[in-house]
Write a structure and sequence with these properties.
The structure is a single chain. It is built from eight helices and nine strands. The termini are far apart. A five-stranded mixed beta sheet has the order 7-4-5-8-9. It has about 200 residues and is of the alpha+beta class. Bound molecules: zinc ion. Zinc ion (ZN) binds next to loops.
């Protein structure tokens, strides 16, 4: 597969992709036609290409690995206090409707031997969020990645997400905000550790 650099419109950002943008664009054009729109209408002419590039971006997490992201940013721990990285924004796509869900991720862990550079938690979150997801799995994958990289005493992940598939389709509006969590190690076994983590998240808000 050949890699192409894609400029994200109006942002000055760019990213690399090896996806077949022609094929994705053709599918977008077919979908536009299938919903009864005129694909030749001026406002829609460039839409298939934009959709292809947008989806390449929204799913770029499939083409990243944990090793690439961590990239050696593991340091020796100086203590065994809880580390909290809370309120990290995420944007993902629900695998049931291909509509966005987004919100905040809170990660806490108690190191054993190692700690990870703080910025890496947002990158790990992004790698899993930029795939087709369900919010429960997103929490589990982040927690398991932290375990894999750091072998900490424990880790907790709480995600608060708003689901456009619920909000825009007008169903069960009261459940459009979902909270999911994944606990590993001491966060799972010890209620006091878990409570401290949950209390810390709420004092940050
Ligand atoms: Zn959905």
């Amino acid at each position: 597969m050949n890699h192409k650099m894609i400029e994200v419109e109006d942002t000055g950002l760019s990213f690399e992709t090896d996806l077949d943008l022609e094929q994705l664009g053709d599918l977008a054009r077919e979908m536009i036609a299938a919903i009864g729109e005129d694909v030749a209408r001026e406002g829609l002419v460039k839409t298939p290409r934009r959709v292809a590039e947008a989806w390449a971006f929204l799913t770029r997490g499939y083409r990243q690995t944990l090793e690439q992201i961590v990239n050696g940013a593991i340091f020796e721990a100086e203590g065994s206090e809880m580390v909290l990285v809370s309120g990290t924004e995420f944007y993902s796509v629900c695998e049931h409707h291909l509509l966005p869900f987004f919100g905040k991720v809170h990660i806490g862990y108690i190191p054993d031997r190692n700690i990870l550079g703080l910025s890496k938690f947002a990158r790990i979150t992004d790698m899993f969020a930029r795939r087709l997801q369900v919010q429960e799995r997103l929490a589990t994958q982040i927690a398991e990645a932290v375990v894999e990289v750091l072998h900490p005493q424990g880790v907790g992940v709480v995600i608060e997400g708003l689901h456009l598939c619920m909000m825009m389709r007008g169903v069960e509006k009261q459940h459009s905000k979902a909270t999911t969590s994944a606990m590993r190690g001491i966060f799972k076994k010890d209620a006091r550790t878990r409570e401290e983590f949950l209390r810390l998240i709420h004092t940050q808000e």
